[in-house]
Amino acid sequence: MTRTIVSGGLVITAAEEMHADVLIEDGKVAALAAPGSSCADGWSAEHTIDATGKYVVPGGVDAHTHLDLPFGGTSSSDTFATGTAAAAWGGTTTIVDFAVQQRGQSLRQGLDTWHAKADGQCAVDYGFHMILSDVNEGSLKEMDLLVEEGVTSFKLFMAYPGVFYSDDGQILRAMQRAAGNGGLIMMHAENGIAIDVLVEQALAAGRTDPRHHGEVRKALLEAEATHRAIQLARVAGSPLYVVHVSAEEAVAELARARGMDLPVFGETCPQYLFLSTDNLAEPGFEGAKYVCSTPLRPREHQAALWRGLRTDDLQVVSTDHCPFCFSGQKELGRGDFSKIPNGLPGVENRMDLLHQAVVDGHISRRRWIEIACAAPARMFGLAPRKGTIAPGCDADIVVYDPHAEQTISAATHHMNVDYSAYEGKRITGQVETVLCRGETVLDRRRFTGRAGHGRYLPRSTCQYLA
Question: What one-character DSSP code corresponds to residue 291?
């Protein structure tokens, strides 16, 4: 039995803050004790981590990543090895990535492909959602089998006709199936049919620059799709989780549904909280770095997103980490914004950016941990093992220095991508030491993790629905 003590820090969970020592035994949290009393109680350990003057917080749970994802004629640039190592650098100890069912394939074929990509490669723990690209009788039946084995969430797209798009009838059928098997439907809510009309018209008029990506993917078309998804879920009797919410009007749709006590949930991402259409409009082709979908919005939308996080109309902040290098990948869209691969890097930056939101007064310290750790763990069936610090949970522990100052830069990040979406941003707070199931993967800003330490996590159903 191996033992570690994390001593002297301020332990912060979604529920409370307390100065405490944390005893870890064989990868689990064994006990918490008042500072210094651990010695009096006879605790002994092979390793002691001094967290005096620091926060001790749960490892982050990033429930929305796309590692090694084929998209737009290329693939996202982080593999499971590089992406999970970068996650560890940023204080995230669990990711939930998206396995993809290709058109004409079974769900099982898609899931097996993603297991093969990840097996033996991950530095931190991981699970999978399942993207349904081909809703038919076979894939609907397979949903039941996947829920039974711990893949309990299914993503559908109202966007990307010809690639991932499902029509309302297919969406309704999938929702009905989820209502019966306990699965959670995740929705990319944008009216892709209407967006494609606007894309065609923009290109025909010579509007080809990256900024037009945001202009054609209108906030009203996100709100309309969000509203439609909510109504379809009501008809089906299904829960609904709307991913990467970016627009004030979409937040209003979620708030209205939650005001009716519907099982409707929402996620936003750091890029919508800290970036805007100003970035898409950067000169030359620089705006291509910020092309993602849903798109960045005018800065005025940010207030509604922060308010939604405070009022719990938005429950989770994930990254939608889907990096493409500027050189050779984003450049595929020179002269045609519709060919720019959609996605931003961010898995390494989420915990730090949300701590900056604490510093800036947008959220409290406990809400930081709620939206980054506890809520995603409960939402996707990983609690109480993940997302908190309590006896019996996995010893996913981050020692966080709230006073350290850093400047985010591609020169110093560990994601496998040649730019940072937050280049030059100065923030206060930095991850110092990270344990994943009791094993140190980052030791005072020195990476000690390894590919293969991370374990696959079968998940239970959404714990907000129990």
Answer: -
d(CA 363, CA 194): 36
Which tokens is 329 given?
A: 């990948």
Name the residue among 350, 336, 249, 266 with its Cα closest to residue 301: 249
CA separation for the pair 132, 154 (Å, rounded): 7
Q: Cα Rg for the chain, rounded, in angstroms?
A: 21
CA distances from 269 to 294, 307, 343, 363 (A): 10, 14, 12, 15
Place of tokens 């033992």: 3
Place of tokens 């045609």: 336
**Could you give the dihedral angle defined by the CA atoms of residues 128, 133, 137 and 139, in that order, rounded to the nearest 10 degrees?**
-20
d(CA 156, CA 161): 12
415: its two tokens:
């994601």
Tokens 């493409």 sit at which residue?
Answer: 324
**Per-residue pLDDT at 1:** 63
Are 16 and 388 within 8 A, CB to CB?
A: no
Torsion region of 417: left, alpha or beta (phi above 0 gives left; psi -120 to 50 gives alpha): beta
Low-confidence ranges of the chain (pLDDT < 70): 1, 38-42, 466
- The span from the CA of 335 to the CA of 339, in Å, is 9
How many Å apart are CA 313 and CA 265, to the nearest integer? 7
Residue 262: CB partners within 8 Å, gap ≥ 6?
230, 233, 234, 240
Which tens digits make up the pLDDT trace of 215-266?
999 999 999 999 999 999 999 999 999 999 999 999 999 999 999 999 999 9
pTM of the model: 0.97
Q: Which amino acid would we find at residue 316?
A: V
Query: Residue 151 and residue 47: Cα distance in Å, rounded?
Result: 36
Q: Which two tokens stand for residue 428?
A: 């206060």
Sign of CA pseudo-dihedral 454, 459, 462, 466 = negative
